[in-house]
Amino acid sequence: MLKPEEKKDLQKIALQLRYDLVEMIGIGAAGHLGGSCSLAETIALLYFHKMNFSADRLKDPNRDRLVLSKGHAALIQYAALCEARCFPREELKRVKTLGGLLQGHPDMSIPGLEAVTGSLGQGLSISLGIALALRLNKSPARVYTIMGDGEQSEGQLWEAAMAVANFKLDNLTAFIDYNQVQATGPTKDVFNIPELDKKWSAFGWNVINAKGHDVENILEAVEKAETLKGKPSVIILETIKGKGFSFAEGNPAYHNGTFTEETYKQALKELDAVKAGL
Amino acid sequence: MEKQSLRKAYGDALVELGKQNSDIVVLEADLGKSTMSYVFKESFPDRYFEMGIAEQNMASTSAGLALTGKIPFYSTFAVFAAGRAYDQIRCSIAIPKANVRICGSSCGLSDFGDGKTHQSVEDGNIIKTLPHMIVLNPCDAVEVKKMMGFLVSYQGPAYIRINRNDLPVFTSPDGEFQLGKIYPITEGGDAVIFATGVMVSKSAEAAELLKKDGIGVQVVNVSSLKPLLKEELLKYTAGKKAIITAEEAVKIGGLGAGIASLLIGEVNLPFEQVGINDEFGTSAHGYEELLEKYGISTNHIYNAVKKALGK
Ligand SMILES: Cc1ncc(C[n+]2csc(CCOP(=O)(O)OP(=O)(O)O)c2C)c(N)n1
């Protein structure tokens, strides 16, 4: 359970992450806004409430790990790591530039990142390896993995799903960002994957649903996942791609989109309105 | 000459090293009885992960283990180890320089009966092109053991190609394997053969035949396919009249091509490549038949030396 002020703090952080996204993408350059925004609350909750994580202990063997399997949403993770002071704020302005620290996709040269992702479908497998090693080491640490719903069509992911269940890894919690839009359009039109919940439970997982923009609800799901032993858990996050920006919500154009001067201003205006209400 | 199993050497080395280093873990994709990794399971069941027939997952899982301080060795047939999981090796392992050791077993044409789907004439060539990866190609069982010892302390990702068949032992158990160093096997002043893997023993046989013709050939074991060092090669070309390369792999992107690109402009000598043309393998009853068919038998090396020397 979150205390009211904790809840408000997390909402403020999620808002700040969205501001950072707008700053990082800027006017004229492209960035993965949609799939980053759908994760703002989850990322805020994990880094700033749930995970045993801090910038001064990035190599602590007992730190909790977060692997962003949908690596194209790196910007939201960069925003969080910046907020956690893993690197100076100036780096946000230099994202994706030659010589900048922040690469287009997660790279291990960036402080706080645990894996190289971006080629979809590999993150759960990497997390499986981490979870096995943590168990061998009798470490209390946990691994959190965030996948996309479009990403669910990658075959390797199901190899990993079977393997994680086979090894009964309950120190691993997976998330599916169920925003129902992938790169080229709505997931049901591009590549329909019906009954995702049944698929995962048939593969031996506990399936938990959560409202992905409600920090309290996400926390409840995560806590439930951690109490269920002997089996891994997957949390299906009901989210909106581009959440927080009216023009981007559910809009495939903002999967990897560009702000015009006009939409940029509009974006900041909409964030300011949320800020006023918090 | 005494023959020994390189696969057995791999499995035995895993067990031996596993006793000394509890960070070593082994992964396999349902071929442990063939790659011989299963012996590790018998000694260390907790540190052996049977991943099922799922090579892509095995590659990325190994990365996760390595990033959490373990030293994973994963094995399966070379064709699947290198080919099935290329992008996983690239993204999960090579880019972050994860300490994963990949064993491509039954490499080359050595799985003679199973044919083209199981023979791997390109695995080393493919993996070589990935930045950060090193590629080792031992010529005998003794070298496998030495390389395994080296791999435990080496920092970075590595690929080792292992022949399915028992091969003559050419190397000495003394000393340690050094990355990038190449090793002379025979002495001879007329030509040098840079050979790798099974082709080392074939080249030594060819050298014996050539000796009867009055031709002296120095066979050199190039067991580090990558890194391949120009200075090392130049030690053996000095004073020779011809260069021959010999490999059990397609010529495109292989050892010969790599040596040629390093020596161009440095030495001006006749150069002959013994390797597989742009073709896949095929089934056969015996390994030797295949080496003959694909132009990489002892005879082919013998002829290549003669041709290079204009004799
Ligand atoms: C293996 C691979 N294929 C294709 C891509 C290109 N790509 C990047 S994001 C994306 C769509 C992802 O959709 P989804 O998983 O639903 O992510 P979200 O909508 O939450 O951003 C694609 C096809 C990739 N990064 N990796």
| Average of pLDDT of chain B | 97
**Domain count of chain B:** 2
Give me the strand/helix succession of chain A.
Answer: HEHHEHHHEHEHHEHEEH
Strand percentage of chain B lies at 15-25%
Query: Which strand order do you get reading across the main beta sheet of chain A?
Result: 2-3-4-6-5
Structural class of chain A: alpha/beta
Helix content of chain B: 25-40%
What is the H/E order of chain B? Answer: EHEHHEHEHHEHEHEEEEHEEHEHEHH
CATH level-1 class of chain A: Alpha Beta
Cα shape of chain B: globular
Q: Are any ligands bound, and if so which?
A: thiamine diphosphate
- The structure class of chain B reads alpha/beta
Number of domains of chain A: 1
CATH topology group of the largest domain in chain B = Rossmann fold
Kindly report the name of the CATH homologous superfamily of the largest domain in chain B: Thiamin diphosphate (ThDP)-binding fold, Pyr/PP domains
Tell me what the CATH architecture of chain A is.
3-Layer(aba) Sandwich
Q: Are there runs of chain B of 5+ residues with pLDDT below 50, and where? A: none
State the strand order across the main sheet of chain B.
3-2-4-5-7-6-12
Question: What's the helix and strand layout?
Answer:
The complex is a heterodimer of chains A (278) and B (311).
Chain A: H1 4-25, E1 30-31, H2 34-37, H3 40-50, E2 65-68, H4 74-83, H5 90-93, H6 123-136, E3 143-148, H7 155-166, E4 172-178, H8 187-190, H9 196-202, E5 206-211, H10 215-227, E6 233-238, E7 257-258, H11 261-277
Parallel strand pairs in A: 2-3, 3-4, 4-6, 5-6
Antiparallel strand pairs in A: 1-7
Chain B: E1 3-5, H1 6-20, E2 24-28, H2 32-35, H3 38-43, E3 48-50, H4 55-67, E4 71-77, H5 78-84, H6 86-94, E5 101-105, H7 123-128, E6 134-136, H8 141-153, E7 158-162, E8 166-168, E9 183-184, E10 191-195, H9 199-212, E11 217-221, E12 224-226, H10 230-237, E13 242-250, H11 255-263, E14 271-276, H12 287-293, H13 298-308
Parallel strand pairs in B: 2-3, 2-4, 4-5, 5-7, 6-7, 10-11, 10-13, 13-14
Antiparallel strand pairs in B: 1-8, 6-12, 9-11
Helix pairs in contact in B: 1-8, 4-6, 9-13
Bound molecules: thiamine diphosphate.
